[in-house]
Amino acid sequence: MSLSGKVAIVTGGASGIGLGIVQAFLAADIKGITVVDRQSALALASDDRVLSICGDVSVEGTAEEYTAATIEKWGQVDIVVLNAGIEGNWHMLHETPMAEYDQVMAVNARGVFIGLKHGLKAFLASPSGGRGCSAIVISSVAGLQGVPLISPYTASKFAVRGMACIASQEYGKFGIRVNAICPGFIETPFSMKHPELLDAMKEKASLQRLGSPKHIADAAVFLASDAGEFCTGSTLKVDGGITNWC
């Protein structure tokens, strides 16, 4: 699957799943890619196809900046992957501080909404009017079934699936595709904060193992490329069968 001639924006692309997606896009011969994160994408600094922008995805000005910078550098935006997210702390719902709920929703839901808004604007302004463009939101198995003790995170991941569903309906007539990927338990710095949970989830997964960022990245390449041209409004589970135990 090739991404030759295409330009992408990936939020949360400096580490974990986001970094895996960026590396897979580069391997698929992408023309250029803007990596947006709270930290610089040092692992990608040597590749001249990468533009690194530091910023808070929950602030609309950040999206305006990274979209404009991408268009200024490459003259186009064909793919947007909205991956940036935070988990928050683990609490029973009634013990969850509202400040924490607000923070998680700001990054995970508001950040995706803003990214979609400006990505879709860029798609529509392209010479093709959006035809062939692809937006991908990274949800979670928590956005399919819910995960106890992280209700703000669960709410945010249900929200982004809803955004993908509605956007796919609104923009399909322009040839724009919008899909969601729901990763299961993936070995990343983000998830390794809870090794005891990962061990338990490994036992519950049908494949009896954890996933890697590459598994999510391969799904993103498919949805971003022409191979996924008839997929929109889809929720693609990449979870090793963890949701089979519901």
TrEMBL record:
Keyword hit for Membrane: no
PROSITE patterns, sorted: ADH_SHORT (PS00061)
Keyword set, alphabetical order: NADP
Database matches in PANTHER family: SHORT-CHAIN DEHYDROGENASE REDUCTASE (PTHR42820), SHORT-CHAIN DEHYDROGENASE_REDUCTASE FAMILY PROTEIN (PTHR42820:SF1)
Name of the featured protein: NAD(P)-binding protein
Organism: Cutaneotrichosporon cavernicola
Top-level taxonomy: Eukaryota, Fungi, Dikarya, Basidiomycota, Agaricomycotina
